[in-house]
Specification:
Length: 206
């Protein structure tokens, strides 16, 4: 009897196994459970974060001449429609002070980087060389601009990466005799042995 039972035990048909697996997969899909392979494929890939650049950047943002601010290449003329000359000189053409600010945008420049700033104005001949050229540490020859600074009130940028220099027409000189001309700044510095230079100029013809 036992031999007869053993003879009647058969291995399940491959067709039956295939049908059973197909039925199981269909049931899983119907219940919202995705097969493992599909679930893995559905996971979003992680995007690698970009590293912040450490490349040094140095450029002249613009120059402000007694309240008139312009990017490099700008020109103020008496007959234009911007009122630039009026803002600089006032209604009588005799402002109590006349000053100019060059603005520099700098990124990844160390505070102790050796730096030279040369700022030429129409009154160069009436001022001293140390007011035209400044050499020293970056943080000593260019000053950080903030919203509360006098420089920012003259129209220049005021982010944590913006810096300025300053020049003033000596007291007692007639403004109308020295306002017109080119205002040119050149900044040179060295970062990790690599020299960097930035320059820019604006013109006043009032």
């Amino acid at each position: 009897m036992s031999r007869a039972l053993r003879l009647h035990r058969r291995t399940p048909s491959p067709v039956l196994l295939t049908n059973a697996l197909a039925a199981t997969a269909a049931l899983a899909l119907a219940s919202g459970v995705a097969p493992a392979a599909d679930a893995a494929a559905a996971k979003p890939k992680k995007t690698a974060k970009k590293k912040a650049s450490t490349k040094p950047v140095l450029k002249v943002s613009g120059i402000s001449v007694n309240g008139w601010y312009s990017a490099p290449g700008g020109k103020a003329k008496a007959d234009d429609d911007t009122n630039a000359c009026y803002r600089m000189l006032g209604p009588a053409g005799t402002p109590p002070q006349f000053q100019a600010f060059p603005f520099v945008h700098a990124v990844n420049i160390p505070a102790d980087a050796p730096t030279t700033v040369v700022f030429h104005t129409p009154w160069d001949s009436r001022t001293t060389e140390d007011q035209i050229t400044a050499t020293g540490r970056f943080s000593d020859v260019l000053f950080k601009t903030t919203k509360s600074d006098l420089a920012a009130s003259f129209g220049g940028p005021s982010s944590s990466k913006d810096f300025y220099r300053y020049s003033m027409l000596p007291t007692g000189l007639p403004v109308m005799s020295f306002a017109d001309g080119a205002y040119t700044v050149t900044v040179t510095t060295t970062v990790k042995g690599k020299p960097l230079t930035a320059s820019g100029s604006v013109t006043v013809a009032c």
